[in-house]
Amino acid sequence: QYVGSFMVEELDLQQRAGRVEEQLRALKDCPRRRSVVLRFSLQGLKVYGADGETLLMAHALRRILYSTWSLPDRQFAFVARNPHSPPSALFCHLFVGLPGEV
């Protein structure tokens, strides 16, 4: 399920990773979620609606700078540059799996 996206400040890599982890903890119990299908390939990551056909977002691997996951919280997140944003604008996209899916 897609929880949401948030902007990541321009900091050094270590600070950026720390801020992302803080935000993930804060959003752990966020009730607002949308069912999605994630498809990974050598080209990148695509996010589809629950029908598996409606493309919601696509990120080439070259634009994904960082990814993380938390097994106990069933969270997966990645930080990427959006295609139509300035190069310095980074966004973290957060997903959570249902029990048994992760």
From TrEMBL:
Residues 1-95 form the PID domain. Pfam families: PID. InterPro entries: PH-like_dom_sf (IPR011993), PTB/PI_dom (IPR006020). GO terms for cellular component: postsynaptic density. PROSITE patterns: PID. It comes from the Eukaryota. This is SH2D5 protein.
